[in-house]
Amino acid sequence: MTYKLKLLANTVLASFYAGTSLADEAPDGSSQIVIGERIEVIGRQNGVQQSSLAGSVDLINRDQLQNEHVNVTVDLLKKIPGIYFARFNQGIVSTDFAIRGFNGEGSMPHVKLLIDGVPSNLHLGLAEMDALFPMEVERMEVVKGNQDVRYGLHNLAGSVNMHSRRDQASEAEVLYGSFNTREAQFYHGHNGERFSQHYFVGHRQTDGYRDHAELEKQTFSGKWFYQLSPQTEFGVIARYFNYEAQAPGYLTEAQSRQDPSQSASYAQDDTGDKQTRHISLHWQHDTGADWHFNGKLYWQQFDRHRYLQYTATSPQQERLEKDQQQGAILQLSRNLGENWLFLAGLDYQAQDNQNSRHVTEKRVRQRTFRNWDFSYNNWGGYSQLQYREGPWTISGGVRVDRFSGELLNLLSQQTRHLNDNGTTVLPKFNLLYQVNDDLNLFANYGVSFQAPTGADAYVKAGTEHKLAKNYGYESGVHWQPTAWLNSRLSWWQQDARDELTPKTDGSGDFENLGETRRRGWDLALSADLNADWSGFASYTRQKATLTEPGPGKIDSKGNWLLGVPAYTATLGLIYSGLDKLNVALYGHWQGDYYVSNFVQAQRYGDYRLIDLAFNYDFGWGNAGLRINNLFDTYHEYVYLLGAETIHSPADGRGVNLSLSYHF
């Protein structure tokens, strides 16, 4: 395996619409972390050109993933510019990520997650990706901004599209590391003349850095694809995932500084489990050189069950969530002459969900205070027209969405209907100008929406929350000043009206936060310094403020929004000049943040972390040594509960040894 980083100067080839990858590697076969101003989407079989996205788009390929070993899959995004994390470390609710001035609290879902093109967000918007182990991931594509016409629900500030492997290979890997961590992964893929089959099995178990933090997870997936003709392919993807974990609880600030590895004494009965079941049918068909069709049908269920207690004086709760989703996606493109391209798509998702909460003592139910059974349905469609002439690429499109559903409160036996927002219309615009072979200018504009979830999405007396609109702008430059250095600099802003935020009283209700503004700038660099040295770096500066809180909250005007760090940065330095040995140094930095929209006396959450990795290629396999948090730096997640902060320390230094074998 090589860690040479190669940035493509002008376009990144990736198959957003296709079921398999056309361009998983750079032309020289090297691995890449790609920072690009656009992704060019290409049809799988006959090269039908489809669409271009102008903006901040990043790609991590297979070679940069296979030496990663993580408790939670979201950690695979650490190298992406502008991404930051909220590490709750509470069992099955462990870590969430955020971009573009939003927080990772889960209170403001804003990133659309897709796995093999299938939506994979829970009803509340949380991205559920833990069913994918690193060895099974082929690549990850991250789009920041709201200029992408393809997605509506949860695509408030961007999307993450994860693609699982469909290559021909057989490999196994085992790992042992700090905190009694054990892991085994196995992948087998075979591509026949017409029929291909791919299997993955993964298991991970650890005692955890903190006391009472044991974790165990297993996953199995299978993919079967049959090519009826050079123009038509059908496939099936199935996956099962199980995750069980203890929760170490939250500490006071004094306790977290005294002994960050301890567990809260009141949390000894906190634990949980979650499962994912998924099956999807995939179809794609090309007609001649002009049309490309892509369709998907899917069914999936996400189950989450946990016991949690926030403080020594608060009661323990049992929370159960079952999200059952089924849907269909149809996408097509057609070349309209030499310069014009037409895109269109339809998607539908039906959710049948259950959500209940109970007060418990030592995991024995005392009373039930929430019991919902509800449906939540989303129809969406889009069209886009793209024009290319000389150095210009211009595209404009519109997306429409509608919602329906009803909620039955099993405690009161009352039924509510989903708020009728009518048809939501979202315009999108992309512009790219290629000054020369080394310099591109880009700009985009888009409108996205924040949909209320839970009980407050359904009409009740005195409350009818509408979809909140976000208006996003971005402009920037992608420049390759030398043959070995590539860069991207962008400025962005998102404004919201009538932004919603969930109440913290456990009711599931929302309140109107008012008008907000998120703005910042991103700098991303990638370099091949010489045959032995390569690297990447990024820096994001951002600010998220409450610009107009409304009557009664005028004192909070101009306040920072909670959970948004002032900056985030990444660094990677890779040396491959020692024959078969590669050495990599990775840095991750994050600024501090406020823990309330209104109380702004203290800031928490900043950190500076360094990871060190060694990888030796035997030819038949690899041996890896990974040291995470090399300097054992203290870092934490902090939440304001009432008048006091509660703290969850993140992992200290950890050392992992891995060995893989390629059959």
TL;DR?
The chain is an all-beta fold and 663 residues long.
CATH topology: Maltoporin, Chain A
Radius of gyration: 24 Å
Number of helices: 1
- The proportion of residues in beta strands is over 45%
Q: Can you tell me the CATH class?
A: Mainly Beta
Second CATH tier, the architecture: Beta Barrel
Point out poorly predicted stretches.
1-32, 37-48
Main sheet overview? 22 strands, antiparallel, barrel
Kindly give the count of domains: 1
- Residues in helices, as a percent range: under 10%
Estimated structural class: mainly beta
Shape assignment:
globular
The CATH homologous superfamily is termed TonB-dependent receptor, beta-barrel domain
N- to C-terminal separation? 15 Å
For the secondary structure, the number of strands is: 37
What would the average pLDDT be, to the nearest integer?
89
Explain what you see:
- It is a multi-pass membrane protein.
- By secondary structure, this protein is mainly beta.
- It has one domain (12-662): Beta Barrel (Maltoporin, Chain A).
- 1% of the residues lie in helices and 61% in strands.
- It has one helix at 253-258, and strands spanning 12-14, 33-42, 49-60, 84-90, 93-98, 111-115, 118-119, 137-144, 158-164, 169-177, 181-191, 195-206, 215-229, 232-246, 271-287, 291-308, 316-336, 340-361, 364-389, 392-404, 406-409, 414-417, 424-436, 439-450, 468-482, 485-502, 510-528, 533-548, 567-578, 581-590, 593-594, 603-604, 607-617, 621-628, 636-641, 644-649, 654-662.
- The strands form five sheets. It has a 22-stranded antiparallel barrel. A seven-stranded mixed β-sheet has the order 1-2-3-8-9-6-7, with no helix packed on it. Strands 4-5 form a two-stranded antiparallel sheet.
- The longest helix is centred in the middle third of the chain and has 6 residues, at 253-258.
- Mean pLDDT is 89; it is low at 1-32 and 37-48.
